[in-house]
């Protein structure tokens, strides 16, 4: 059994631009292969009309413990502090088990 972690962000109005979105995507996806137990990561930064979020993170972890460790991982937090947190107004999170 694996665990999926999905985040939706709405950016602060003054940061709703391609440069900020690209930084979020490149920053977070640079964590691939660096986080124990993380088997997948993807950041979507091109919402279609009708969307009410600006970016989405989707990643998969082998265990719930790996997901919990990700939240406090220094590499993850350094990226989030540099590329994500300063620019976001709203953050929604959904974590769930992926059934085999």
From TrEMBL:
InterPro entries: Dabb (IPR013097), Dimeric_a/b-barrel (IPR011008)
Residue ranges of domain Stress-response A/B barrel in the record: 3-96
Pfam families, per the entry: Dabb
Transmembrane feature ranges: none
Gene3D superfamilies assigned to the protein according to its UniProt record, in alphabetical order: 3.30.70.100
Protein name per its UniProtKB record: Dabb family protein
């Amino acid at each position: 059994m694996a665990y999926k972690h999905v985040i939706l962000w709405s950016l602060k109005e003054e940061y709703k631009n391609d440069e900020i979105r690209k930084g979020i995507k490149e920053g977070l996806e640079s964590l691939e292969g660096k986080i124990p137990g993380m088997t997948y990561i993807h950041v979507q930064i091109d919402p279609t009309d009708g969307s009410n979020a600006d970016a989405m993170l989707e990643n998969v972890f082998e265990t719930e413990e790996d997901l919990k460790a990700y939240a406090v991982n220094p590499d993850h937090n350094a990226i989030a502090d540099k590329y994500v947190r300063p620019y976001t107004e709203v953050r929604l999170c959904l974590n769930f088990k992926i059934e085999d």
